[in-house]
Design brief:
Elements (H helix, E strand, L loop, with lengths): L1 E2 L8 H12 L6 E6 L1 H12 L7 E6 L2 E6 L8 H15 L10 H19 L2
Helix pairs in contact: 1-4, 3-4
Length: about 120
């Protein structure tokens, strides 16, 4: 879902999807939304009490898993947008970089996803 003014380059979305497949990450049931800065700031205020924009937010509640990414916060760089999508989806799947013992696994997965994305999308 794209609620931002950003128009991804041709092949971007399929490269993201294929990177998940290449690495063996099951994304079924996860929604990814690309939003503008104002919408992201409203989410941050609603859920965190701060009216600032950010790059990515991940929400997991009941059976819902959502990843919200703000391309404008990332200067519309497709590689950074992909990185934040991967980061948010990994959080939605339970990966955690804030717990020291779990951080290396999440970091390895992010690197593998970015490598697969670069192969599919180009460098």
């Amino acid at each position: 879902m794209n609620l931002s003014e950003w128009k991804p380059e041709e092949g971007f979305l399929s490269a993201v999807r294929l990177a998940f497949e290449d690495v063996g990450v099951d994304t079924s049931g996860i929604t990814v939304a690309l939003v503008d800065g104002e919408y992201m700031a409203s989410l941050k205020e609603r859920f965190f009490g701060e009216r600032t924009t950010t790059d990515v937010l991940t929400f997991v509640y009941d059976d819902v898993r959502e990843v919200v990414v703000c391309p404008s916060h990332l200067r519309y760089d497709p590689y950074e947008v992909a990185r934040r999508i991967f980061h948010g989806v990994l959080h939605a799947l339970g990966y955690d970089h804030k717990v020291r013992s779990k951080a290396p696994k999440m970091e390895r997965m992010e690197r593998a996803l970015m490598e697969a994305f670069r192969r599919r999308f180009g460098t």
